[in-house]
Amino acid sequence: MVEYYQQLPPNNYNYKQQPGYDYTQQEEEWDREGLLDPAWEKQQKKTFTAWCNSHLRKAGTSIDTIEEDFRNGLKLMLLLEVISGEALPRPDRGKMRFHKIANVNKALEYIESKGVKLVSIGAEEIVDGNVKMTLGLIWTIILRFAIQDINVEVIPNFILELSARDGLLLWCQRKTAPYSNVNVQNFHTSWKDGLAFCALIHRHRPELIDYSKLHKGDPLHNLNLAFDIAEKYLDIPRMLDPEDLVYSQKPDEKSVMTYVSCFYHAFRGGHQFSTFA
């Protein structure tokens, strides 16, 4: 498939399927008739589009509208190739509806081959540009390839097996524990004041941020500071709007998890100095 774009660069991820994990299923069933909260839909569109583009740019392309640009299945298949480092079957190049359905089915079959049980998501809905189903599919991909294999060493040489969400949450809690004004209990309200993002950066790259000058009462400043530093120095694109976090009673959990997972991968593989070592 790679010949229809440019040759893919080496993949940075090295995911291994872990036996015994029970979170390879979708976290929830996506109701075809239900509607997303408009604010959450907006947040997910922005975050998921930015996450997809952070990978697609490695292959020299991008998407603009998430529910439109995956409809023919070509960029969906390419996204899976980039994040997995594996080649998918050759895509159908025709422009008829059945060609598009065939391509999306190849992507869905690949996802299922990784142990993910897709629920309520069909190729026809992706081809038709169903927003909720497309966001549900991209979330499933994020969960499987960016969050599922996060492991946390509780004691030396002992890896605790947790759900995808709980593994990422535990990592955040352990990294921000030394900061008395940060209390990460979830992936929505715990991040509204921006201090948890700043603490993650300071914990690994203390030279990038003067944490002592930050105040809980200035959330927009804290969030903009963290997002700017992450984009400039950690190669993590902006995936969230500070205003959405501050003024939402409960920010979208999936969007926050997606963005936070990028910090995990940036610090896991990069050269960083961790304070409180």
UniProtKB/TrEMBL annotation:
Superkingdom of origin organism: Eukaryota
Record domain Calponin-homology (CH): where: 42-146, 162-268
GO function terms (MF aspect): actin binding
Pfam families documented for this protein: CH (PF00307)
Presence of keyword Transmembrane helix: no
SUPFAM superfamilies attached to this UniProt entry: Calponin-homology domain, CH-domain
Keyword list, A-Z: Actin-binding, Repeat
Protein name: Calponin-homology (CH) domain-containing protein
